[in-house]
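Hi R.,

Here's the chain you asked about this morning:
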Amino acid sequence: MFHFLTKLGYLLRETGAGLRRGGWMNWAAASTMTVLLFLFGLCLQTSWQLDALMNHFGDQLEIAVYLQPDVSGDDFVQPVASLPEVKSVRVIPRDHAWADLLAELEITDIDAATAQLEGNPLVDELKVHATSVRVIPPLVAKLQGMAGVDRCVYVNEVRDRFEQIQRSVSWISLTLTAILSLTAVAVITTTLNLIVAARRVELEIMQLVGATKTWIGLPVVFQGAAFGLVGSVMALLAIAALRAIASGFLLSQPDFLDFLSEGLRLSTAQVILLPAIILGLGLCIGTAGSLFALRNISWR
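And the predicted structure, written out as tokens:
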């Protein structure tokens, strides 16, 4: 155990010494990693929030199911509620709908209006809430196929628009991550190449006295991982600060934006998973840059 700690202490001292030799290039590598991971984390978080918002809107959007004349809505409550895509269903009897319509038109004599039209022209209506916005199209298809249903009406523009935005965010995230990852690897490789060049004589002496490639290369790998770690922490702090500012702004706004803030909240699993993904990506990119730098060492 003592022998292991001694070796680990030596590697950490060598890592620190190498970072001190990097000077301002360390800042270039760490800031590039921070920008990369911040944009990646922001796009990933936005994609999750849009997905949650779509489901949140799915809870609020209603499907209006209009039945055929002389068909009672009470007979459809149980069959519709038993569908797995349905969260809740309620009936609006034709008499209630007719009374509400006349009230909106400011017609007080309901009997006269009904007699003039030779009866109530409306039909029973069902208001159906889906479990998710994504199940609305197949649910509408099922409802349309039920005997006694005349037609279904729902607002699909919101769902389509959110799906388009989510696809755009995914493509932007992938493109930015690919481009900035290559940039980060290039900057880290250049930084570590300069550090290796400054220690060339020292590394040659270490090889002459029998130091292995692993023993020489591990501090370089640790330096690349340090860039990834620092970039990850800075990116997470920036994302957390931006999320707090956005949440505070939405909560101080009218009810509609408050409704949006509820839909934009991340789940507990996502709050834990986001730092893990950013940290893992940062360490992978930092390590990749250090491995490229090790290729430039003249091994004996």
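The longest strand covers residues 86-92.

Let me know if you need anything else.
M.
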